[in-house]
Design the sequence.
């Protein structure tokens, strides 16, 4: 039997500013985009490790915190995390190679040279013990993360899932031959909290999502852009649908506001 | 010694990229690992790299390491005793 899913909260660090259930805040004059997000913009309490986070982890943690720090979770044991990250840990890998070239390989950077390190940072800080999945690579990673979350919820392995879609690339990374042409040139991170029940203080949108294959020739990273569209709908509390198609995958995501 | 201790505080903050920590927040006699700074084993490795890179000092084994990283003061003492003498 399929379980009704609810989209209870969202957040996004996008090129123009910070989006969350509380509204939109543009970047300040000194900030060029999500890569410059500060601890104070996403967390009220000090977090000594924030400065250590590498770019992909910082973006994922930032988007996650905007939901989790300001919005209680019903059951940490049953909250999953799924992460889609187009470029994987490439940005961190390149920073690590810089320390190797300088003659002193950096242990802290090395420990973050896995796409899943962002999940670890979030799970440890917020005490989440549910299952987690990471999807790295060009193949519609964000859409896959969304689908994985719905599967975990439908199968009863989790009651809530934090879905993250992250694009993290630093300017110097563009010269790396491993970076495919389809990767977006802008950093961004989008997060959704999807649950099997509407939550107190949550947005309470009913969520219907179906996933399949697509034969449309659409660049891989455009799948992640659909999340930006969804974020803007949520910001304005609009009911609607997003038909995403990216890199061989399609998705129809409909959100309906409960009366 | 006090100058070295103050320098080390700044280097620890910048090397480990500690957010929301100022030099005056660091208790020179408090444990570095497992204390209020929230340092872990990876941070200890970063500090080992710092010792070698900035002071030419190595830590030969775990037992000595435990004493060296006992506090900022013990770290400074170890550096003073083991750094290569200037000719």
Sequence:
């Amino acid at each position: 039997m399929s379980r009704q899913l609810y989209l209870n909260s969202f957040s996004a660090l996008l090129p123009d500013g910070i989006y969350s259930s509380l509204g939109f805040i543009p970047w300040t004059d000194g900030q060029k985009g999500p890569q410059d997000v500060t601890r104070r913009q996403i967390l009220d309490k000090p977090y000594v490790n924030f400065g250590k986070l590498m770019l992909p982890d910082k973006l994922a943690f930032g988007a996650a915190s905007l939901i989790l720090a300001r919005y209680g979770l019903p059951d940490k044991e049953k909250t999953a995390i799924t992460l889609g990250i187009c470029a994987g840990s490439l940005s961190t890998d390149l920073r690590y190679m810089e320390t190797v070239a300088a003659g002193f390989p950096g242990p802290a950077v090395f420990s973050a040279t896995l796409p899943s390190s962002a999940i670890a940072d979030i799970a440890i800080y917020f005490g989440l013990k549910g299952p987690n999945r990471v999807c790295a690579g060009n193949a519609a990673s964000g859409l896959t993360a969304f689908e994985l979350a719905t599967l975990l919820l439908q199968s009863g392995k989790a009651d809530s899932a934090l879905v993250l879609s992250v694009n993290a690339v630093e300017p110097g990374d563009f010269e790396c031959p491993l970076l495919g042409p389809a990767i977006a040139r802008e950093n961004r991170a989008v997060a959704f909290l999807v649950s099997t029940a509407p939550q107190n203080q949550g947005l309470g949108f009913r969520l219907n999502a179906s996933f399949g294959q697509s034969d449309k020739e659409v660049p891989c990273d455009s799948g992640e852009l659909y999340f930006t569209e969804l974020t803007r709908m949520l910001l304005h509390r609009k009911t609607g649908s997003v038909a995403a198609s990216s890199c061989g995958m399609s998705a129809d995501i409909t959100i309906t506001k409960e009366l | 010694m006090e100058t070295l201790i103050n320098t080390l505080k700044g280097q620890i903050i910048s090397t480990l990229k500690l957010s929301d920590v100022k030099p005056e927040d660091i208790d020179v006699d408090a444990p570095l690992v497992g204390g209020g700074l929230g340092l872990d084993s990876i941070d200890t490795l970063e500090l080992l790299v710092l010792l070698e890179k900035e002071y030419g000092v190595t830590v030969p084994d775990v037992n000595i390491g435990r004493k060296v990283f006992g506090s900022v003061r013990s770290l400074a003492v170890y550096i003073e005793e083991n750094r290569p003498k200037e000719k």
